[in-house]
Write a structure and sequence with these properties.
- The complex is a heterodimer of chains A (about 375) and B (about 450).
- Chain A contains six helices and 27 strands.
- Helices cover about 55% and strands about 10% of the residues of chain B.
- In chain B, the strands form two sheets. A five-stranded parallel beta sheet of chain B has the order 5-6-7-4-8, sandwiched between helices. In chain B, strands 1-2-3 form a three-stranded mixed beta sheet, with helices on one face.
- The chains are: A alpha+beta (about 375), B alpha/beta (about 450).
- The interface between A and B is large, with 56 and 42 residues.
Chain lengths: ~375, ~450
Amino acid sequence: MKLIILKNHLKAGLDAVGRAVTSNLNLPVLGNILIKTTNNQIKLSATNLEIAITKSVYGKIIEDGSITIPYGVLANIINNVSSERINLETKQNNLIIKTDNYEAKLSGIAESEFPIVPKVKEGKEYLEINGGLLKDNVERVIIAAGISDLRPEISGMLFRIESSELKLVATDTFRLAEGKIPNSQIKNNFKQGMDVIVPLKTAQEISKVIDAEDAVEIHIDNNQILFKTKELEMVSRLIEGKFPDYNSIVPKDTDIQVSTTKEDFISALKLTGSLGSRISEVKLKTGNKKVLEVYSSDNALGENNYLVPAKINGAESQISFNWRFLLDGIKAISGDQVLIGLNGESKPAMINAPGDATYFYVLMPIKQ
Amino acid sequence: MINEELWQSVLSEMELQVSRANFLTWLKNSRLVENSDEYITIALPNHFAKEWVETKYDKLILGSVRNFITSVKKVEYVVEGGLVKASITHKVRQVLNDKQLAIEEFKVDPETNLNPRYNLNSFVVGSSNELAYSAATAVVQSIGSKYNPLFIYGGVGLGKTHLIQGMGNEIKNLHKNKVKVKYVTSEKFTNDVVTAIRNRRGDDIKNTYRNIDVLIIDDIQFIGGKEKTEEEFFHTFNALHENNKQIIISSDRPPKAIPILEERLRSRFEAGLIADISLPDYETRVAIIKNKTQERGAALDNESIDLIAKRVQKNIREIEGVLNKIVFYQTSYQKPISIGQVEKIISELAERSRANINPNQVIKAVASFFEIAANDLTGKSRNKEFIEARQITMYLLRDMLDMSYPYIANKIGKRDHTTVIYACKKLSKDLDKNQPLIDKFTAIREMINKMG
């Protein structure tokens, strides 16, 4: 194999696939990335046997071939070379990196030792979505996710493909977030609705490696999912099992509605959070129609009270929440107004933006 | 040679031929799924392993297998996620205090929808629920053959859900998950039907509800009048029943008292065993209170238990409400509760439920029970179906709200107050002996209490 690549292209490629590199004592080749030329394209791949990322990079191919190289050392070299143009050449199981003033010889492992990335059938039924839109929704939903070894089906993000929309849902059983993308914003070729649970790690990678400008195709086949853009392919296993029926826990009505500005509420939480004690507890007190009181106290440190201008409907109440969880939800709301629906001290609260039906965040209180 | 031995022998040969790293990564967590003379099927833990073994080791494996069974021509590979437990254990991001409440519903097993909290051991048996309980245990012992369907009815908060979910859990434990159980409320069933229609996934209902061995459906009365749901349920019911799969149904009233339920469904419900759960008697209530106090890790003297059992008669959930308050009192004041305090807590709860009821709610509840319009109820028509509903309304207004005869007469369509007196007398006489009427009353009273 013999290639000439621009540093920027190679670096971008390494950054993307590097996210799937792992160190594995049994199989050291998993710490390597595969560089391979096929059909006049240079492809970089890495895998941790849960997900595999492949990215095409631009460059001039002088001679076809392939090799796998330890990711860490290669990335370090490419990040630090000063030249624009980089020559790559294989000699047996070695990779020679050459620039105007630098030359290195790295020992690699033959491609035949590298795992074969499983194919996901690309049929007619797939979904196409703008990368930015997908990333935004993954990011605002993933905040509610948690890893549970006992309950694998909730250690992931639900992709619910319905005939009219795509829903993303995540929960750690203390809170739950749902983002909706209507069909008007995506191309949905699935004939039937479908539920798949994408591992959390995969969901995290989506928001890291996918370019906001690109169109992303989502293919599902045989318990695997493929996210595909012009240059990037990410294959992941899916989690087997059934996501809990969450619709029943989403409050349909709320007893008390608090409407306030996001900015005010965020500063209230950050400030009172500093005295939120070990369990991060803040109390929301309603009573006055125009002011929401945010109160917290700590036995050792003291107490404080923040008055947030708000519009409040409903009776007097006092409900405790974990302020970090509350803040996660408030931050995920789009726009500058936020609506908090309260339902008593042991029922979930509902957080969303007025007039925005595409997102909500449900949070359980702290027992008083 | 049995499959496990065969595969073990093949694996030991493979171990000598491939590197240790490769063996551990690709082959160790595998299993022989099927072995016919012509081909064998091997399950591997993930798609990577499948690709690798299929491309690189197929020949070796086939050769090795043929040493033992010469007729095998082909090895097939499938992925079986359960073969390897998630090896990556993550740290919990944040230490959470146990005060942070979790969404209870998510503790429910998503496959069976059963809440593990319910079991038959904690179900207190008394004369009021003896029949239902022994039917339940009989069904648990011999699924599908004894009483099918088993139809259990009774008022709100008397333990229907506890009994039927307990049965589900018991069956699951008894058969070590080999019997597929599914618990569903009729509301959820309706939602599933609607979702299936909306997403053009009609087969979903079939797949979810017909491939099971025990279907438990709660609060079936809400299915009445929803035609498509009734139809789907009818087909599901038939499919299961024909294959001797057990069906367990609960309702707040007997099949014949569910209005607008299709006749074909009603007759099917009545074909098995119908058992009722009625109000628990004093002794049962005492046992329940003792059980529940123990569950909460609290202590209560006999005098208080006696008082609660005497005063809170109609609903076990109310008993729970009282106990919760008592436990709260005891933990916050760190001292045993006095009999006076118990008395106060009970009266508060009783008053609260009474204060919330108004005449319009009574009218609305009766109207919705009989599936007629509230206007017809208070209107002039002397149609037979309205008359019974009207008389029941009058009786309830008098009985529950203690309203005067003339006021009631005025409220129910400006009638003469003697009409009301007649209605109340007639019903109080009938109520002594007419069981269907008593059932109706129980159901309506509960609807009213729910509104309050």
